[in-house]
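Database export, one record per block. Field names are fixed; values are copied verbatim from the stored entry.
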Amino acid sequence: MTNQSPIRPLPPGIAVSSDADNQLSSRVYPEPAHPYRSVFVRDCGRILHAKAFRRLAGKTQVFTRRGTENDHSRSRLTHTLEVAQIARNTAATLGLNAPLSEALALVHDIGHPPFGHAGETALDQALRAHSPASKLDFDHNLQALRIVTSFEERYPAFPGLNLTLAVREGIVKHSRDYSAVTHPELAAYFLDQFPPLEAQLIDLADEIAYLSADFEDGLAAGILELPHVLANVPLVADFYAKVAVQYPAADPTLLTSEALKQVLNTLVTNLMQETCRQVKIHDIESLDDIRQAPRRLVQLNSEMEVQRKHAKSYLYRFLYQSPALDAEHNLAAEIIQTLFLAWTNDPSLLPPDHQARIPQEGKARAVADYIAGMTDTYIEQAWLNTKR
């Protein structure tokens, strides 16, 4: 499905430099250089040691622990590690700044609330309904920025993690573009320019990681059925047919695992090949060229993008929005909206550090920040306590 020709590194001027005097290496609070760790390697370490990162182990990717008996389903943390592997290897192969891409992959989901996308939707709806005139909403990218610049408290010298400008820009822009008109507070992040390729590739690394993983987890949970997948998703069926010929005596579970591994590998290879092609046809030679390009350059070719979108649509219809998960999604919405209402009605129920944020952030945002930081089990226990 894709030409497996060798991937040649991109022109060296395209990669973000790790030099200390590079603007993207700068931090809000200046720090002396480390004797042997680059600025982006240090960012990886700071993210890995953050409490918000550790809490990803207790946050839903697709399945809550009460929604499946399978202990092997991905959490936000295991998904994040899979994205980091893809991003790091892809960046290194293309000659980009691999530690920077790894840092962005590690931090890309750190702003998600409990209960996966159902929880994010419920929290967003609660904020919007609380004060329609103020236009409050919940955006996990901007929540991640708030976490790393303010909420994490690990260092006596500064608030947050004091990450580099490159990582903060990538948190904001890796998956979407923001307007300076609607988000003037983000003006420092070059909103009129595209982000570096190290940040651009995170969005597709994320898509590729969960595409293959969610088929595996959906089949293991019994929500997806292999014959139905093979009859409706050519991207999976083509590889399954090939491995079935290669391993005629293998168990279907092993054939599925091998087929999905090849799907992932093919998508990553296609991403690298197409990105190289886009760089070439647009005559890109430098990071400035990337920023001023007519569009984002990290992408799949048109044929593979059609296949990816078809497979993603299948997952939405038959997994993410399946009746089997309705009860979990409804419970997630009830828990988040009930607690949001209870705590906005009586902010004294919040912990002191979140109460202290109310004068600056407002009551609704302070409550949303508290909820967003919780794991699935923690928020469910808080909800059960309100019912006693």
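Remark 1: The mean pLDDT is 94.
Remark 2: Residues 252-281 form the longest helix (30 residues).
End of record.
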